[in-house]
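Example (one chain per record):
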Amino acid sequence: MARLADYFVLVGYDPGKRGSGDGQGQILQRFPEKDWEDNPFPQGIELFCQPSGWQLFPERNPPTFFVAVLTDINSERHYCACFTFWEAVESPQPQSQARNGEEKEEEEEEEASSLVQPAQLFAPKSLVLVSRLDHAEVFRNSLGLIYTIYVDGLSVSLENVIGNLLTCTIPITGGAQPDAEDEAVRTISLGAGDRQVIQTPINDSLPVSSCSVALLFRQLGITNVLFLFCAALTEHKILFLSSSYQRLTDACRALLALMFPLKYSFTYVPILPAQLLEVLSTPTPFIIGVHSIFQSETQELLDVVIADLDGGTVNVPECVHISLLPEPLLQQTREALSMVLDPELEVADLAFPPSTISASSLKMQDKEIRAVFLRLFAQLLQGYRWCLHIIRIHPEPVIRFHKAAFLGQRGLTEDDFLTKVLEGMAFAGFVTERGAPYRPIDLFDELVAYEVKRMKAEEGNKQKILRHIKELAEKLYKNENPYPAVTMHKVQKPTEGCHLRLHQKPFPRLDEGTVQWIIDQATAKLQTAPPAVRAEKKCMVPSGPPIAAILERNGNALANSARRLEVVRNCISYVFENKMLEAKKLFPAVLRAMKGRAARHCLTQELHLHVQQNRAVLDHQQFDFVIRMMNCCLQDCTAMDEHGIAAALLPLVTAFCRKLSPGITQFAYSCVQEHVVWTNIQFWEAMFYCDVQNHIRALYLDSAEENHMEQESAEEPQEAKSALEIASEQLRLWPTMSREKQQELIQKEESTVFSQAIHYANRMSYLLLPLDTSKNRLLRSSGLGDVESVSNSFVTNSIAGSVAESYDTESGFEDAESSDVANSVVRFINRFVDKVCTESGVTNEHLKGLHVMIPDIVQMHIETLDAVHRESKRLPPIQKPKLLRPTLLLGEECVMEGLRVYLMPDGREEGAGGSVGGPPLLPAEGAVFLTTYRIIFKGTPTDPLVGEQVVIRSFPIASLTKEKKISIQAQADQFIQEGLQLRSCTFQLLKIAFDEEVASDSAEIFRKHLHKLRYPQHVRGTFAFTVGQSPKQAMQPKAKEKNPSLRTLSKNLVKNAKRTIGRQYVTRKKYTPPAWEQRGSQHFPEDNEDEISVSEELDRSTLTPSSTMRPSEKMTMTHVVERACCRDYQRLGLGTLSSSLTRSKNEPFRISTVNRMYAICRSYPGLLIVPQSIQDNTIQRISRCYRQSRFPVVCWRNSRTKAVLLRSGGLHGKGVVGLFKSQNAPTPGPSQADSTSLEQEKYLQAVINSMPHYSDAGGRNTLSGFTSAHMSSAGKWGSIRASGRISSYALNVEIGSRLAGKDLLGTQHNGTPAEPSFLRQHRASLYIIGDKSQLKGVKPDPLQHWEVVPIEVFDVRQVKASFKKLMKACVPGCPSSDPSVAYLRSLEESEWLSQIHKILQISVLVVELLDTGSSVLVSLEDGWDITTQVVSLVQLLSDPYYRTLEGFRLLVEKEWLSFGHRFSHRGAQTLAGQSSGFAPIFLQFLDCVHQIHLQFPMEFEFSQYYLKFLSYHYISNRFRTFLLDSDYERIELGLLYEEKGERKGQQVSKSIWDYIDRLNKKAPIFFNYLYAPEDGEVLRPYSNISNLKVWDYYTEETLSEGPPYDWELAQGPPEPAEEPERQDTAAPQSKRRIIWPCYDNRSRVEPDAISKLLEELHNLEMELGQVPERWKDTWDKVKASQRTEGRQDGSRTPSSLLMSSGLSHHRRSLGVYLQESGVGSTLNLSLDSDTSSTSTPSSRKPGGRRSTSTLYSQFQMSESENRSYEGSLYKKGAFMKPWKSRWFVLDKTKHQLRYYDSRMDTECKGVIDLAEVESITPGTPTMGAPKTVDEKAFFDLKTTKRVYNFCAQDVQLAQQWIDRIQSCLSDA
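Predicted structure:
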């Protein structure tokens, strides 16, 4: 029984303390006056009666009632029911007369202003009941009754009523059914003719909510309340605002009711008084209600969730993150709540909604909502009892919750919400309260134990869910309202409006004596009465099903994992049966399976089976396997070990061991210490508790079994009891036991815990002390580098300090002896022991004993470890694959011996198996070698199934663009290793992880060497120079002279002339430079970008070159003449050297030697073509206007139109562009700028005059037809913008209109320019293509014959950036998340193709202009990057000569090498260039050539391989050809002319061209069989991005031999030689072999037909002992014979013949790969006699350009055809079908008869397999057969399936067909 009310208090306004503005309240009377012993009087009640402050009011307000809640120091809640009414205050006038005058006046003024009505003020007075029970309605009625008695003046003594109220006692909880005496107890009367029934809840653990929950949802809505609910559970601060106190209380009560079964344990103040508002800034969580008038004060609270009940909003501040419920629970809860709160929602869309649907009454709705939350908790916490560890039963149960296991089983370890809830105070309270195994149970216990299965089953079925909610709601309602007897209520209420009566007596002073007397009597009576004992119904708490039973996985995953588990089991049994090879094969699969949880559990179970008597001794290999599996198993465990894997392995690591030597055993634990879980104290606690529970369970089971042995044998098959069941049984018996028995049990339990603590101290020392005790595991950051998590977990455990802190803090420094390991481990174990022992009640003596033992345990263990460590070092290392040595080039030497590494797969899928399929060649295990030329990896795949293959990946050191350190895991069972990622611009990536045996310093040395070789001090340090020398000689380049003037240069030139070649360092003879006729100072423009080229001022003695030559120079000239440029100039008819010396005037151009000493322009060749009329000294002046002095020179002339192509650097910004800009005539003053511009004009005019058609064009007609309107701006070249993505070629409007005579050039849809005819006569004679940014504001001059074409081009920086992205796209460093999109997207983002598009576009434009007779000067950037690209491409497209092997070489030598493309600088070949990085300008040019090659495969003599070969070697530094930046530098190093004298002696090629020539003589690898050039054809390739292909050079690789561009290395040992021995073996020999993408070199394994035939021919000649003929001669013969044959046939043109022969090659370039090894079916050169028509003659429109599409229309992409015989036959269709004429083809090779609709048809309509033919018989005509045909022309073909009826045109044809088919059949 309990008191209904503890205190009755009368609180009034305190007039005395009215000075401070706000009034105060005071307690006028309280009953009883002395405190109850069990319940002291709560402080501060007067604050809570008027929470917003005590004030006087000008009128009477109606009485108010609310309940405030106070919490005392023992966290007991007191409910204060406050009933407040207003009383008139006695007028304060009489008192104030005593005051002095001034004050009085003030006061009167004040009152006069504020109070108009009679100065009557009303003060509040409160009646307060204080109780520990929450019966708000009863309190409201009782206080209302007291007020009624007072107001209406009833004749009842107030003292009596109050006395009765205070002495009223009620039962705390009700029974199930009210019986009569109960009813008497529960009905109370206060002696005023009233009676009330008190509804005491049946079960007081369930909260009482009446309607408050439903109201809360009404006010805030579903989502908001869920936010609040989650915020409260995750311990956020929550503040309610409302203008009603009662509502604040209700809302707070509702929130607590929702949290059931968790209890809120932080600050809870439903109504906070104004004076205490600062409580809101407390740091702890709270739930507080505040009146909304204080809303402004809550504004600055930053971390409080504010719920405004009146406005219905919940405001979550930005800095607060509320974790919501995990899905799908959140969604399910929302749906359930909306079903309860808004049942109409379901039927809102129905056409005929049911009329009856309506929500339940508020009270029921309230319970239904609570039912939803009850279900939610049951689902959240289902199975929680299976994660309780009971560690003591007597004297008090001690229970711990295994949080990690609970989260792990739920699969919610990552879930924020649940993790926070489990860590919260509320849950800790829940475990202590509900963990106990033997206690009364309530609705929640039943729900979580028995109904979870049902809830799982009903998921998704709304009706059933609703039914369940209603059932629960009924129970909750019944619990709150057990008595329906509400009718018996009878409580007087005051009359309406009585509070407004004018004359009311104040509330009387009560007589304390009377009240006290009533109270005393009642207490006396209670003491005499027998105590009402209500037996608590305690019982065992049901555990419910374990989580695993509830959360079934889907079947499919189970099946899949079942296969994996099978693999794991097999592998383990192989290990223990010592079948090591079998185990090895399965091992990778096992390691992959370990990613799954099931497999890890399976592993631990299987290993347990192999442990006998806690020990399993293994041999070394077995031990190794077991360790690797354990490590792999543990590496995916988090520190929490939520799946209990580490826990299951813990007993195993002390069981498995191996004998190292007699008496020394190594246990598994010494090899699995690297995991983060062992340093996590929570893991050890959970493990400890789990073990203690098992032992305590065993303790009681044993004693139970002794007693019940006899009975049990009968009922064997009963399940083992869980620890909790045993505990509850024990707790039930506890009160019945004797004192001694109790003591004995307590002691037994305590010693059990104690022995476990010792055991764990041992275990922890095993796993924390490293094998090599000089390295400390705890002081080091944790094993897996997860520093944060480890240190945090220590801190959160609030164990004294973090482990990494120095154990010897006082001494101030850390002692690095082995003792620090011991000390840190001892400290760690001590903290653990302290924590668990105090929690599990171990006595202090025992605890002290433990602390003494721990250091000894650790020390002992260290000693045993030392021996083990010593012995384990002696073990022979595990057999690793032998390191394979790479084959090296002649002259290539190893710099560093192989370091054992793993080659890891990067983002390219092919090698790694992956989704593409194919064997996983990577990761591979082998070694990385560093030679003077390359970085090479050579090894074998780690996957045993492909272990026999050799994997080689290499690239030249010079091509290294980026190296970065990475840390990777090489093998699933090993730890993270350091590694390197090396990226090369030959599109290769080496991602290597160093093996453990590689010391980190040798890896560092490797990097240093690599760096030194990659960036030598000087070009002389590169491989091309050092090859053949021993690398040990330090290559010290001669200290360069600070200012190598022309003197040194001329010395060199002379020396070269004297054939003192390359001997740079011979002592120099004194040499005086010749005196020059004219002396003048000359400045080179300063070149800031180029670190290598020599830019400086020359001495005064330097030259302005003159026209006469010295004999010494003439020697040099002979060399210069031999240079490529010179040969080419003569071929083009641009003049010979002699003509330039003897000045024959008829030639328009001459070869000028003005630059022979490289004085005018360092980066130009010595001989240049300039207009005949221009003097050398003019040139020198002009050159200053151009960047790098690269003035315009002619580099090519169109033989037909005689238009010339010129190149130069861009113009200097100052003064020169004035040439174009000045509209007016130059001023006569002789200023420098003007004279130069005049000379420049003269120069350009001279170029124009050289063109033959210039004179015919009739004066200055060029711009005649144009008004100035057309000339408004020169920058409208619409298409060629920086965006680079516009497809049309539109020239700018005005040039276009000038060229085409219309607004815009017509451009064809594909990006090809229109036909040449568009160029009308209006066009300039010379177009200057310049950079838009330089030519800003250039106005066209109507008097000039040239026109400036400004275009936007990309600069080198953009090329670099684009190339980087291209490399990452083609060779990604790691696999991308979405492989389908990633490659193409990153390819697009690199913008590489759009740059190629831009270059091609400009080139084709220039080709068009040249082709129509205008000359073009390309003057972009410095004239050595894009200019070179464009100029070279223009020549390649316009002149077929450059498309031959010889011509292409010449083109590269002339335009790239002689004209000074800065190869060394752009390739960053030396230390100086390191910062500028790699810019692939030349590669971009080769890519453009490749694009053209793809579109015109018949126009090029060289193959695609040739282009790839150049791409690879121009950066590989294997040859000297592409070193240095200009001819000048090459001469300075003595490179240019040395080749003649020295090369004979040396085998090593210095020049790539010689190498290519030699190779080309040997084998046709550089030759294109499709080569069949059209005479003088100008190529106009499509340049749209859609027409460009990504070059396979970027993406392909051959892992079998490394890059195929070092031909000697790639040619492996010849395979056919082994053939003869093989024949003897009985096994059938197959010629088939598997070709793997990315592994085999396809073109070699399966050469195209022609190469194969040539090779066979070569082999035959060798066998016959003849001198083999060169392949080229053979090929030419074959071609010649074909031509003659073709002429006899008359049906073929030579080109079409070649088309047929080259077919295979073309097909392969299109990606179809035909493997028809022996007989190249595509080769019908002259091998097949009855070829009737192989390819139709190409139809050529006379004079029209043959477009590429018609070029290839001759061969269809249908299957490769071999037509032995073909013709037209009639065929009878199947049953009931007519005869039709079809074109039949008989194919011997495929042994089939095919038919087509017509001769031209490419698609085969049907095939008759000749193998199925049984007979051919003469046929008879049937219905519908062709009428005119002789009946003997019919024949039938009978196959196994049906009979075919045929009919030929005449009898002979029929006979021929029959014979042909017969012969085919007999051949077969």
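Caption: The first strand starts at residue 2 and ends at 3.
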